[in-house]
Automatic annotation (TrEMBL), chains A, B:
NCBIfam families linked: PRK06187.1
Domain AMP-dependent synthetase/ligase: 31-397
PROSITE patterns membership: AMP_BINDING (PS00455)
Residue ranges annotated for the AMP-binding enzyme C-terminal domain, each copy included: 449-528
TM segment ranges: none
GO MF, one annotated term: ligase activity
Keywords: Fatty acid metabolism, Ligase, Lipid metabolism
Protein name stated in the entry: Long-chain-fatty-acid--CoA ligase
SUPFAM superfamilies in the cross-refs: Acetyl-CoA synthetase-like
Source organism per UniProt: Lichenicoccus roseus
Family of this protein: Belongs to the ATP-dependent AMP-binding enzyme family.
Length: 546, 546
């Protein structure tokens, strides 16, 4: 026999999961609700929807068409939100250009994406002007001036004026939900940027599932009474997809432009922001500014991702009345995979649970596996690589078959993160796979060793990497910046590690092989310790005896 | 140009929305969580999953195959939940047989569905045995004995023993998400039952969207700490789809078997039930039993649907510490369309808002339209028919093209409900379309007139129907059961209506044309006033002058 299907009222039943349908509800429930951009713009959802039509008309007049890539270089704004919708809604592909990359990489990503139209905030016009000769595909530049200044001569027009002159009655049509909607480049610490892409179906599924853990009819959660302000840049993984969720729910939205702690706190107070998300660095910045100003943060729910939320930072936020939860995901995963929650069974520390990566959201399958793809025990201790399946993961790195195959080895997306899983499904990220030290058949977590060593007096900063060893595979090497006037020895460090070995906290392989004292630690463009550079310096592989 | 698609890592990226994936998360996060059936069974999710494999193996051994319809006649149970999953997961179609229909209709629905295997609770074995000669397609009957009693001779086996003997390692495969998963019959007050059906994709989308309004990381909502017990029979629109949501979330689930107020209250207390849903009649039954027993109901969130939650009943529940919300939907809509919520802008009565049908959930488009499909104003007053689009509506009435075309006229699903919509998207159901009285070019709401008339002294029960009128189209006629010893006149009734007309509450056409005093009101099988019978008695159309 065969599966059973029925004749269907085609027009009625066929409901593609295209991004335009995220608007279906909020235009009815929240037409008068507001979308706010700094001090500058305040529009209703009704106007927002009309502006989507105008933007689609204006882009079409500039040559936009189905399948074309259109790039955006802007700070967080209502305009960016309009691009999140209008560009995919005409069947084009939104490239959210990472404006923090070095200029040459900005050009590289625009060219590799094949972007033909760019929307550029005035702050990035000098960058784009300098790159213009190196952007052969770009046929039109729209300037986003944030005020009355005239756009440069080479621009096809200014955003607001183009919208004013455009027809609001653009007829958006439905199409295949598997059409590409967005594309952007990951900024890994290794190699050149890789392009990930997401379809309409994936973005819609991500939005409705991401609404689940934050949803709620009453009080806390993310619902009609919330006021939403992203504090994750909109060029970064669709600002974690939450602007799509917020628009779908019809909540008030606030966009802060270029991040500045005073603007953020002003908007938070004036607009009554209750729901945000950011990386720990932004939270620290907000907390420091709030202390300086004596600002009240009570009732602000913040989801933290990007890097681990430390228990100390979580407690700091909670002391000020904030609610903090962790989320985990990556560019390749749209991004949401897990969200933290208090432990089901009492007794354990709530902060500890909230600072874990969390439990998988619906439709997300997680496994923690060894190198042969066998599951390690779900005991909260055994480590392995976290691999994932879900309906919203990038299908490939665009144009890079080899990297795509590696990403999807064995039919699971490889996160390159070393994690543990426990019996209640709590995922805890322990390390980046490439930062793990494989010694004597065991995995040493570099982060664990770094935390232990950082406790010693006289240490300002520490990194631990694996260096090749003919017998043990790898052995750990420490790189330390000492506090001025202090010195640190290998013996002191290994004494500390010996006591951890004695108490069973780490394996006996944890003793460092050697220690390097340095003046400054090499950093990546986003301020993380550059372990790739450290490996190049200290862990060059033995010369092959070929 | 054309839409852009990318080469994809097929095995990885193609993630069909099939029902089996609702299990992906909870098997990791809630393997030790419990599913409870009365006093009889207590299994973990791990065992539940193993039993799905056993059930699939056992059914396959009985001849089950892709595309086959398999019918279930059971009270609410863990077995029914197993059938919700295992039957669609093997590619078969689950028929949730409505056991409240008259025997001849039970046979008719089983035959029209083409069910070849039936799973039958011992309480329904006499029914099925009596019907066996009239069920030519049925090749195997599995008895669900709830204990040690032997199954009847004609049964292929007993559920628990079949599972015991079956292989737990059934290999479920993925397939087209548009395959039919479930099928059941609506029990409208008119005509013979109509079959609606839902696909895997529809059920999964319904589950993840339905999680949104009830979801929540913290405290209230529907989350990991909740304990779920449906009080809407599982044969009725997948118990509103909430067993799928509960299983996806990995919450503790409690199944009450045949509804009995004492069992329900015992289970509520013993298992700590916090989240349920039911029709108002069941809520009334629970409240009465709780009063009798002095039972505590605090902290129990109940979603009410099926019929309107009256403000009085809502207040009664709230006084006992329950939280009450309304939901609205129908068999054709899987069912969830709207959920009530407190008003965004304060000042209005919370109970009033909570007893409305509510606001549409994400991806649901609602319109209130006149007979030419033009939208009536969203002013909370203007009435029209509620029409719907959403990704989980039945595509047709199976095998009934004419009814399907009428259901989907103009590309929107016609609810046959008369509603109003306001500027915040609150839907309020005012009447059934066929109960509306169309007079002088206006719609009179029969329910509104009935409520006004019921206020008069001496009235036990009242129904208002439209009777044909050569000039006005229709005119209202009242049918009244008077309290013993009282009488009621047309003049008394019209005096009451005149004052409502004077104050603008109803149109001037509301005055009744005539009044019939009757001894008893005709009722349908489910206890509603049978307006079809009243129309046959009092509103026969004028004989055509052919």
């Amino acid at each position: 026999m065969a599966l059973r299907f029925v004749e269907r009222a085609a027009e009625a039943h066929d409901f593609p999961l295209t991004i335009r349908h995220l608007l279906d509800t909020s235009l009815v429930t929240a037409a008068d609700q507001e979308i706010v951009y700094r001090d500058e713009v305040r529009i209703t959802y009704r106007t927002f929807h009309e502006r989507l039509g105008r933007l689609a008309s204006a882009l079409t007049a500039l040559g936009a068409a189905e399948g074309m890539t259109i790039g955006v270089l802007d700070w967080d704004s209502h305009r960016y939100l309009e691009c999140y919708f209008a560009i995919p809604m005409i069947g084009a592909v939104l490239q959210t250009v990472n404006v923090r990359l070095p200029p040459a990489q900005v050009a590289e990503t625009i060219n590799r994406a094949g972007a033909e139209i760019l929307l550029v905030h005035r702050d990035f016009l000098p960058l784009v002007e300098a790159l213009r000769g190196a952007l052969p595909n770009v046929r039109a530049i729209v300037a986003l001036m944030d005020g009355d200044a005239a756009p440069p001569d080479y621009a096809a027009g200014e955003y607001e004026r183009l919208l004013q002159d455009a027809d609001p009655d653009f007829e958006f049509r439905d199409f295949d939900e598997n059409a590409m909607a967005t594309l952007f480049f990951t900024t890994g610490t290794t190699g050149s940027p890789k392009a990930v892409c997401f379809t309409h179906r994936q973005i819609v599924l991500h939005a409705i599932v991401a609404n689940g853990p934050f949803g709620g009819l009453h009080s806390r959660g993310f619902g009609a009474d919330d006021v939403y302000m992203p504090l994750t840049p909109m060029f970064h993984v669709h600002a974690w997809g939450m602007p799509y969720v917020a628009t779908m729910l019809g909540v008030k939205q606030v966009y802060a432009g270029r991040y500045d702690p005073d603007t953020i706190l002003d908007l938070r107070a004036r607009e009554g922001v209750t729901f945000s998300h950011c990386v720990p660095t932004i939270l620290q910045m907000v907390l420091a500014a709030a202390d300086r100003r004596g600002a009240d943060l009570a009732g602000w729910l913040m989801t933290i991702g990007g890097s681990a939320l430390t228990q100390a930072l979580c407690r700091e936020g909670r002391r000020r009345g904030m609610e903090l939860v962790s989320g985990y995901g990556m560019s390749e995963t749209a991004p949401l995979l897990t969200v933290s929650r208090p432990r089901r069974e009492g007794g354990s520390d709530e902060v500890e649970a909230l600072t874990m990566a969390g439990v998988p959201v619906p439709l997300v399958s997680v496994r923690v596996v060894d190198e042969t793809m066998r599951d390690v025990p779900a005991d909260g201790v055994s480590r392995g690589e976290l691999v994932i399946r879900a309906p919203w993961l990038t299908g490939c790195y665009v144009g890079d078959t080899r990297a795509s195959d590696a990403l999807w080895r064995g039919g699971w997306l490889h996160t390159q993160d070393v994690a543990t899983l426990n019996r209640e499904g709590y995922v805890q990220i322990r390390d980046r796979l490439k930062d793990v030290i494989k010694t004597g058949g065991e995995w040493l977590c570099s982060v664990t060793l770094e935390d232990m060593i950082a406790d010693l007096p006289g240490i300002e900063q520490v990194a631990v990497i694996g260096v090749p060893h003919p017998h043990w595979g790898e052995r750990p090497l420490g790189v330390v910046v000492a506090v001025a006037g202090h010195t640190v020895t290998l013996e002191q460090v290994n004494q500390r590690l010996d006591s951890a070995i004695a108490s069973g906290e780490v394996s006996r392989y944890a003793r460092l092989e050697s220690l390097e004292l340095v003046e400054t630690m090499p950093k990546t463009s986003v301020g993380k310790v550059d372990k790739k550079a450290l490996r190049a310096l200290y862990a060059a592989p033995p010369v092959a005896s070929a």
